[in-house]
Design brief:
Strand content: 15-25%
Largest sheet: 7 strands, parallel
Structural class: alpha/beta
Shape: globular
Radius of gyration: 19 Å
Number of helices: 11
CATH architecture of one domain: 3-Layer(aba) Sandwich
CATH superfamily of one domain: NAD(P)-binding Rossmann-like Domain
Bound molecules: nicotinamide-adenine-dinucleotide, UDP-4-deoxy-4-formamido-beta-L-arabinopyranose
Number of strands: 14
Strand order of the largest sheet: 3-2-1-4-5-6-11
Length: 340
């Protein structure tokens, strides 16, 4: 297939570009570089040995998005583009609603006009909201979130379901990611947050490499085995493979209009377990202190994984130790992230 990857220069998108090329698909990328650097692209080309056409614009520019679909043959779209920082979304809700919904509107319009019928969408475990019991199951009726970023995902899922219901032939795979971490085993691409990392793994990695003094562990008094929060960390290379599996599943099952799958491991790992795993992988002690809970954090989040296993034939294979070793390879080789 010829697959348009929106946000293909970003963390998960870049790893998925490699997985798609490896599986024999053709890829083209659109990215505004709002949260990524163009220098990722030559690395992807070197790793894959293939030329990757890149269109640098904001998907919300409906004319440019339309022209891209008019000029290029596109069989399927994987839609990663969006803003993703939870804290920032509470400070700039309008920017998040505008960007995340606006890019999806322009994309859906262009897909409709050019009869592109396959879409894989990046959703998040955040749509299970604050009250769902763990492990999270896909057939939960009411989705919600505790922050504007999460609401953009809930809203986009609803929009996609409505559009799919009204568009015979359109197929939408909604993939709800748990906590993506890790990096490509080459150490050439990985997560490169701008500014102070919001998420645990990049923060630990930056402490290990000397960019940050110490990790603040948000809360040591949760009702969990060691008192720190439990999350379902999933290696980004496994996650990327889940997208290839979803494309294949839609192609093999044309009756599917819209369906959601969790992409996680089903295992909860605590903050301190992750810290210690990273110390083992890197050989570097990680300074940390336990501080108060972070607003909006849940004690535990992990996936029920059966649906993806039985239907997509996909399961996460990489361990927490793999996640730490690969993150460390990327971070230690690229202490300041991508150049540029
Ligand atoms: P990322 O920020 O690294 O990648 C997103 C890419 O989209 C960036 O390269 C950015 O420049 C681009 N982009 C943003 N808005 C755009 C627009 N309007 N037009 C064109 N390009 C635009 O993020 P990521 O971690 O790779 O996440 C990819 C997707 O997965 C996002 O939709 C995110 O919400 C979702 N997701 C991420 C996580 C996570 O923890 N990383 C978890 C669940 C879901
Ligand atoms: C993991 C654990 C923290 C940082 C977020 C989004 C979610 C999804 C993935 C996009 C928690 C603790 C963290 C730190 C810490 N993104 N922590 N010190 O919050 O599970 O999920 O990213 O869809 O929507 O909310 O991930 O990596 O921020 O936190 O102690 O400096 O690490 O309290 O227990 P989270 P995270």
């Amino acid at each position: 297939m010829r697959v348009l990857v929106t946000g293909g220069a970003g963390y998960i998108g870049s790893h998925t570009v490699l997985a798609l090329l490896d599986a024999g698909h053709e890829v083209l990328v659109v990215d505004s570089f709002a949260n990524s650097k163009p220098t990722v692209i030559p690395r992807l080309e070197e790793l894959s040995g293939q030329h990757i056409p890149v269109h640098a614009f904001d998907l919300r520019d409906a004319d440019k998005t339309e022209r891209l679909f008019a000029d290029e043959r596109i069989d399927a779209v994987i839609h990663f583009a969006g803003l993703k920082a939870v804290g920032e979304s509470t400070e700039q809700p309008l920017a998040y609603y505008e960007n995340n919904l606006g890019s999806t509107f322009a994309l859906l319009r262009a897909m409709e006009r050019h009869d592109v019928r396959t879409l894989v969408f990046s959703s998040s475990a955040t749509v299970y909201g604050e009250d769902a019991p763990v492990p999270y199951v896909e057939n939960r009726d009411h989705l919600s979130s505790s922050n504007p970023y999460g609401w953009t995902k809930v809203m986009q899922e609803q929009i996609l379901a409505d559009v799919a219901a009204a568009s015979p032939g359109l197929q939408v795979a909604i993939l709800r990611y748990f906590n993506p971490v890790g990096a490509h085993e080459s150490g050439q691409i990985g997560e490169d947050p701008q500014g102070i990392p919001n998420n645990l793994m990049p923060y630990i990695a930056q402490v290990a490499v000397g960019r940050r003094e110490r990790l603040s562990v948000f809360g040591g008094d949760y009702d969990t085995p060691d008192g720190t929060g439990l999350r379902d960390y999933i290696h980004v290379v496994d996650l990327a493979a889940g997208h290839v599996a979803a494309l294949g599943h839609l192609a093999a099952n044309p009756e599917i209009a819209v369906r959601a799958w969790n992409l996680g491991t089903g295992q909860g790992t605590s903050v301190l377990e992750m810290v210690h795993a990273f110390e083992r992988a890197s050989g570097v002690p990680i300074a940390y202190e336990i501080v108060g809970r972070r607003a909006g954090d849940l004690p535990a989040s992990y996936a029920k994984t059966e649906r993806a296993e039985t239907e997509l034939g996909w399961r996460a294979e990489r361990s927490i130790d793999d996640m730490c070793a690969d993150t460390w390879r990327w971070q230690s080789a690229n202490p300041q992230g991508f150049p540029g």
